[in-house]
């Protein structure tokens, strides 16, 4: 089977590959994550407690606080950032935070990434091209 | 994106490396959203000065202070977000000498740069007032929602970008700057009767939950009137649970004289109703406490208006807050100065409460109030405060937020809890 390639836009350049953590919930990086552990703490999220540290974090949407930028930046400084961020739509705060963390960020893909990608999939994120490649199992 | 000659010079470093770095970041953000050009901003509202400690090391901070003293200034009117303790109320807070020394130094940098040390989540109450249609670059989700929705100003979700916009006076033109992204995408028809600021906060929280995907713009119908305080609580609520950078209230906010105007001529695809039952459910969602004992009562999130501080003082006149209960009324410093002149702060202090300026318990995460990281029960009239308390306060070694229990209710109910020590 051929690998599926999603095409979208560049939020931040760079390349990363790894295991995906997919959440269909909206997450705020301020309050909705624990920067000390790199886990989701968003109240009412079905994925509360799951770790995105060192993974390709695929998120339906960010929301809430302006602290999204600062906390994403903090995650990087604490060594708990994801390897890349893939989102349905673009958040200017995630653009800024991913630049600080030097991780690729892509969004506005031709398919909803939270449906096309499953948790545990091996994916390659090319921020330069704005693509996400899902490696066929 | 297109840059004019002056913007090119900023990027090239002709105005120094701070301006160059700021312009570089704004161009990157603009490029990500296909912005065609930069626009001049009316005002910026960057993070509090503590954030300088994240961006620059000590040597760079010294350099920045020197550069600011030599003439590096912000290019747009700038207020700043919450980030300072209330220096008059040291014993209420518990911050260290080391923290005070550091924050005073960072405050000096902001001051020299020309950023007003407002330390508030509600700059729109203390002089940052924007005419309709003007571009802004403000942090604080409840504030940019106010600016977009109530003022009809134009601003995107901002973090450090607001500081870079303050320095350059520019923001890339995309998103909420453009008419097409200000069009309502969903409709909430309010059937419930709204009787208090906390009812508006609960409605805001409900609305945010319907609009928790980026670039949604909810429109609301069925609201007959709303006070400044009602709108402030609505903004706080919707900014906590939602991803929307603005909302329309038909007949109330400036871009929604009619439902058709809010949807820019289109018909709403779906209508969500907000009933009395929904209002009740929202209160349940925002109250997590079971034990009636209350340790802290927090009012003024977002920061209180002078009118609110006066109303709270009237409720507390001649009464006594229950022993062991911490009662805070938060506001911006100019509001506290006026409240002092009117005698409100004295009345509240005599009752055993405290008017705190410039603060938010969330500063506890930065070591300003160490007790925020202990378990306690909080009563508040703010849906925003309830949301973040549920995620952030209490012991941090388990799961942050779980150690803090919350009662959410009207201002009157909160005052009564402060006096009785129980909900």
Please give a structural write-up.
The complex is a heterodimer of chains A (137) and B (423). Chain A is an alpha/beta fold and 137 residues long. Chain A is built from three helices and ten strands, in the order ββββββαβαβαββ. In chain A, α1 packs parallel to α2. The model of chain A has no long low-confidence stretch (mean pLDDT 97). Chain B has 17 helices and 14 strands. In chain B, the strands form four sheets. A five-stranded parallel beta sheet of chain B has the order 12-11-10-13-14, sandwiched between helices. In chain B, α13 links the parallel β10 and β11. In chain B, α10 packs parallel to α16. At the A-B interface, β2, β6, α1 and α2 of A face α2, α10 and α16 of B.
Task: Please name the defining characteristics of this protein.
heterodimer, A: 137 residues, alpha/beta, 8-stranded mixed β-sheet, two-stranded antiparallel ribbon, 10 strands, 35% strand, B: 423 residues, 5-stranded parallel β-sheet, 4-stranded parallel β-sheet, 17 helices, 14 strands
Structure summary:
Chain A is built from 3 helices and 10 strands, in the order ββββββαβαβαββ.
